[in-house]
Amino acid sequence: MCLGALCVLLAPDAHADTVWMKNGDRLTGRVTQLEAGKLILVTGYGGTMQLDWSQVKAVDSASDVQIPNEAMRRDYLARLRGADEVAILSVPGVPLNEPGAPEPIAEQSLALGDVVWKGNLDLGLNHKTASTRTEDYAAKLDGELRQGRWRHKIDAGYMRNTDNSVTTSHHYGASLSSDRFMSEQFFWQGRAFYRWDGIEELSRQMAVGAGPGYQFWDDETGAFSLAGLVGRGRYNYSDGASEGFYAVSLRWDYNRYLGDKRFELFASGELLRPLNNAANVSLDAIVGVRYRMTDWVSWFLSYSRNQVRGGRQSLNEKRLSTGLGLTW
Question: Angle 142-147-151 (CA atoms, 0-180°, nearest 5)?
């Protein structure tokens, strides 16, 4: 009888979930969520753990796990069977025998790609007719694609301003970066940047670079990361002249959600220092606030600055923008 009681005391919790990692570790607790390549495990000995899904070898889940599906704008409840598949149980609020519900657990499995796509498309339009006629057009796209240890970001923008049919400002540009995470915080970034200006003497700015970065946090409250890059840049001028240079730069990307994610504060940019006399410093940055009126529609207010100082031709462009955007 004493032996039986001792076995009960020493036996593991029958309702606990078990996670086996590829490095041989075995963890027990309660699996609650799988999102953006992170498996959330709540334990009594280590608190809440975020496990890299790509490093999970197998899972024995007795409890229901929430898996967001951004494309469907709904959450699935599932039981994890292993590191490559999940078995769908149900969609919350939709009985299995109703249209739109998934098949029962024994008949359907879903391969997990760990792909998360999110972003914003902001549009600003202004048309004024009085003693002068003014037209402003602006568009800005920010997108992020995550899969496993990879994160890809695209940032593209267009702006045109005319006064009495005279174009006073006209430019567009884009940047593309790819991050490879070595751990939850450290990553290696590669980036390419291009900007064209139809008015200023400095008509084109181009740069490519690579270097290490650090993710301070990335959760439901927001994200903040810094990256230091070394690369090659080039300035082209409207008279046909150009100059290339090596450069170092510091990049930052910050956002914070407030008020149940209705309000968002954001700031991003790059401070670049050429290693010759092409310029003393170059700054390309934006800061602003966004208010989500619905799940898809948002209002934004932003201040941006593009400055090149100390070179053949200085540039100091400032812009205050507002308008509506699409958020996904």
Answer: 45
